Amino acid sequence: MLLSRSGVYPFSSPLSQVSAALVMASVSLVSISFSVSVCADDSLLFEPDIPQVLTPVRLQQPLAEVPASVTVITAEQLRLWGVEDLPSAFRFVPGMFVARELTSNSSTVLYHSGDVSLARRLEVLVDGRSVYKASFANVDWDQLNIALEDIERIEITRGPSASSYGMNAFQGVIHIITRHPADSSPLRIAAEYGSESRRRGYASATHLTPASQQRLSVFGWQEGDAGDYHADGGLVGGVPDFNQVKGFNLSGAWQSGADSTLRWQLGRQQLKRDQMADSNFQVDSPQQESISDVAWLKWKTQVSPDHEVQLQGYWQGENNEVEYRGCAPSVAFDPALAALYRSNPDLMNVVAGALLSLQSDGLAADERSQIEQIFTAVAMGLVDADTLSALLGVSVSDEDFAVLQQAVQPMMVAGALDEVTCGDGDIDIYEQRADFELQDTIRWNDSLRTVQGLGYRQDQAHSDTYLGGGVRIDQWLAFINAEYRMNTSVLISAAGMLEYDGERSARFSPKLGMNYLFGAQQSVRLQVSQSKRSPDLAERHVDTSASLRRMSDNYLGLESGALFYNTSADAWRDDLKDEKLFAWELGYYGYFHPSSVQVNLKYFEERMDDLISTQITLNSTYLGNEGSMNLRGVEGQISWQPVFGQSLVLSGLLQDREADRNSELILGTEQAWRLMWTRKAAVWEQSFGVIYDYSARNDAGGSRKGGYQQKKLVWRLGADTQLGQWYWAGTYDGLYDQVLYDNTPRWHNRIGWAMDW
Question: Which residues in 297-311 are b (16+ Cβ under 10 Å) and which e?
Answer without folding.
Answer: ebbbbbeeeeebbbb
